[in-house]
Amino acid sequence: MSYESYALSPIGHIVSPFKQKFAIPRQPNLADAEGEIFFNDDIYDASAFRGIDGYSHLWLLFVFHETLERGWKPLVKAPRLGGNATLGVFASRSTHRPNGIGMSVVKNQGLVVRNNRPVLKVSGVDLVTHTPIVDIKPYLPYADSINQATDSLAQYHNIPMRTVEFTPPVTKQLTAPDSPYPQQLKELIKSVLSQDPRPAYRQQNDDDPKVYKVKLYNADVSWQVRGKRVIVCDLSLCNE
Fold first, then answer.
1. How many CB atoms lie within 10 A of CB 154?
2. How far, in Å, are 45, 79, 181, 219 from residue 19 at the CA level?
3. Could you tell me the end-to-end alpha-carbon distance of the chain, in angstroms, rounded to an integer?
4. Which of 215, 233, 235, 219 has the alpha carbon at shortest distance from 166?
5. 114/156 Cα distance (integer angstroms)
C-alpha cells in the first residue's frame, strides 16, 4: 500500500547562539542556551498562541536543514558509541533521516510582541541558528514523561563534565565595561565546553594539544583540554 506525499512548510525559524553544529549540546536542556522563534508572515496572529503561557515546556518540531541534501542512511554512526559503531536510523536521533525532521523539548520563556509580530522565547535549545520550525506543541508531563521507560544504551550517555577556565586576557575581554560580547556568553561557554564537545574517541585524552574553535553568539572561541581541564585561550569577534 502506498500513501500520499505531504508537503510541510516551516512556520518560522529559531535564532540561537549556535552558529555551527560543532559543540551544540547533544540533547536539549543540557545547556541553558536561549533562543527566539520568529514566525512567517502567515503566522502573525497572536491569538494562535492563546494559552501557551500555561505550559512550562514545549516540543519544537524542526527540519535538519543543513543535512537534507546528503539524504538519509539506514545505518548511522553513533557518536556515543565512539563514532564507529552503527545503529539503525530509527534507533537513533541522527540528522540523516528519511524526512529530516527533529524534535526538542525546550523551556517556555514566554511570548512577546515586537512590531506587532509574535516572538516566542525559549531556553535549553540545541538547534543551530536559523533552523526552520515546522510545529510547536505543549509538553504534557502526565503523558510525555514515562518513569518506566528504558534505554539499553544508557551506559553510553554519560556526559563529560570538565572544569572550564579562562585565560586572563579572555576574562578581561568578557568582563570589560565596553565588551562587545553578550553578558550571557561566559556562562554559555562554560556550560557548552564543560561537556567536552570533542569527538568521543578524543574525550579520553586529558592533554590534547589541538586548539578547537566554536562559534557562540558573535564570538569565535578557541579552547584546549589541558590536565583534564578545558582552557579557553582566545576570543575574537566572528563574522555574523
1. 8
2. 29, 20, 15, 10
3. 48
4. 233
5. 43
pTM, two decimals, is: 0.89
Relative to beta strand 219-226, strand 34-39 is: unpaired
Is residue 75 within 8 Å of 151, Cβ to Cβ?
no
The cell for 37 is 522563534
In the CATH scheme, what is the homologous superfamily, with its name and number, of domain 160-237? RelE-like (3.30.2310.20)
The three cell numbers of residue 3 are: 500513501
- Degrees to nearest 5, angle at CA 195 with 23 and 157: 100
Contact between 223 and 214 (Cβ < 8 Å): yes
Please list the ranges in the chain whose pLDDT falls under 50.
Answer: none
Residue 39: per-residue pLDDT: 95
How is the chain split into domains, by residue range? 12-144, 160-237
CATH class held by domain 12-144: mainly beta
Phi-psi region of 33 (alpha: psi -120 to 50; beta: other; left: phi over 0): beta
Q: How far apart are CA 25 and CA 213, in angstroms?
A: 15
